Amino acid sequence: MAILGNIIKGVIELKDTFTSEVIHEEAQEQVLKELLEAAKSTQFGTLYDFETILEAANLQQSFAKHVPYFDYNKINKHWWHKYHEGESNVTWPGKPSYFALSSGTTGKTSKRIPVTDDMIDAIRNAGIKQVFALKNFDLPADFFEKEIMMLGSSTDLEENNDHLEGEISGISASNIPSWFRGYYKPGEEISQIEDWDERVQRIAERAKDWDIGALSGIPSWIELMLQKVIDYHNLNNIHEIWPNLQVYTSGGVAFGPYKKSFNALLGKPITVIDTYLASEGYIATQVRPETDAMQLNTDNGIYFEFVPFKPDYINEDGSLNDRAPALTLDQVELNQDYVLIISTVSGAWRYLIGDTIEFTNIERAEIKITGRTKFFLNTVGSQLSVNKMDAAMRELEEQFDTTIPEYTICAKRGDDDEFYHYWYIGSDLKGIDNSTIADALDESLKIANKNYKVARSKALKGVKVKVISPNRFYDWNERNKKKGGQVKMERVMGDEKFKDWEAFVNES
Predict the structure, then answer these.
(1) What is the tens place of the pLDDT at every residue in 410-442?
(2) Residues 30, 15 share a domain
(3) What is the mean pLDDT of residues 208-218?
(4) Opening angle at CA 125, ends 124 and 126, nearest 5
């Protein structure tokens, strides 16, 4: 009998009994007030007169009026660079204990995003919320006695003056509570290995020693780790070595594109729970099984605003122009793409995180990630967002009975000086020529997107497809960034990067 598991499950259910439902709109106004109060004496708070904003009759409206939008380049140039020059109280009281390194999906140079002690607390609280939400998924008591494999970046953080640096997954894992360490795998020693291939090799060697009940990490890297374990032990599927694996918490990207290839590594179905942990904070987590949408963490150190994702509001570099209106939670609508704007306990203010989302349930503040502002392809009016591209990949998977975990696209002129969409698709598909796949993809996008259909009848000449091994995408990430952690593949590339990509693919 799972005595400890029954106790833990009982505590989770009891806590829910005594916890009131969050009223998200009210929670957001309270969070904004707390943020402004905490930062009113900082350099940022003084310049933008947080004291006056706090006295306004409409706090949210006054905040939006007085404080401009910031993307990383803008806030780092004007504010965050001061931390590295020894200054304090810049955009948040004191100095950050950590900086999250994030090359994300947009470049080779790491961004350095401040992570304060208040943010560490907020991330931990959001993690606890996720644990308590497990009661909604009807998991057996013995699940709560199993070990959890968290595959992120190295927890061996680098010292830099008076702070530590690393990816957010490594920072979070290095701050797990002491009571959780007995459940946490691969453990501190292996997690500190910097080289991703070496770390995964050690995981494979030790896999038989662990009773894994849950996995956590970005889908592409979790898949590669599972395949390594399967190959090392000559297994048919991962459940042959981890028979009690029941839950996977995805993070950082939408799970949908990886669902088919991920399930191929399993021996039986498991529960998939989507989470949204970014370098800037723990944004949202799935709290119920009836949907794969995630609930914004509205009462936990992050204030959200939402800009309608329309071409008129987006600059070519993915930033927002001055005409872009910001909506609060009580103003949003269903099934509309929004650019996500956050203000946080790490001193990010009206910060463009780079993701687009849509609401699936406004009362519950539930969202889905729909793409990236820089991965919105609008050449010659095609208006393709990542969710439309992902949906097209799922259709190709079904039509050609294959898996497509990775892809990238560029819109550029061909040899005939006409515009084409050039797609590279990561799949082990064989025996079907690229032109057949291109025709199927083109037709799928015409049906799904009227703007694309119009573009195809005018300035967009056609679609070109090249199928390559998914491993080439992972090799590209390794060459340009590194393997594992928070690294994600660019879905849309500009001309210059696409030239580098094609040269890389064509290397012998």
Answers:
(1) 887 878 877 888 889 988 888 888 889 888 888
(2) no
(3) 91
(4) 90
Please report whether residue 268 resides in a domain: yes
Residue 158 to residue 337: CA distance in whole angstroms: 38
How many angstroms separate the CA atoms of 155 and 169, rounded?
A: 8
Is 64:114 a contact under the CB 8 Å cutoff? no
424 and 474 part of one domain: yes
First to last CA, the chain: 57
**Quick one: which of 130, 179, 173, 145 has its CA closest to 12?**
130
- The lowest-confidence range among 115-119, 218-222, 280-284, 345-349 is 218-222
pLDDT for 376 beyond 80: no
Together in a domain, 383 and 359: no
Strand ranges (DSSP E) for 378-486?
406-413, 419-426, 460-468
pLDDT at 6: 45
101 domain-assigned: no
- pLDDT, greater one: 39 or 19: 39
* Residue 57 resides in a domain: yes
CB 193 within 8 A of CB 126: no
Chain-centre distance of CA 14, in angstroms? 31
For residue 17, pLDDT beyond 60? no
Q: Which domain holds residue 37?
A: 24-93+302-366
Residues facing residue 281 across a β-bridge: 278
CA proximity to 278, closest of 257, 292, 296, 259: 296
Residue 193 three-state SS: coil
Whether 342 and 310 share a structural domain: yes
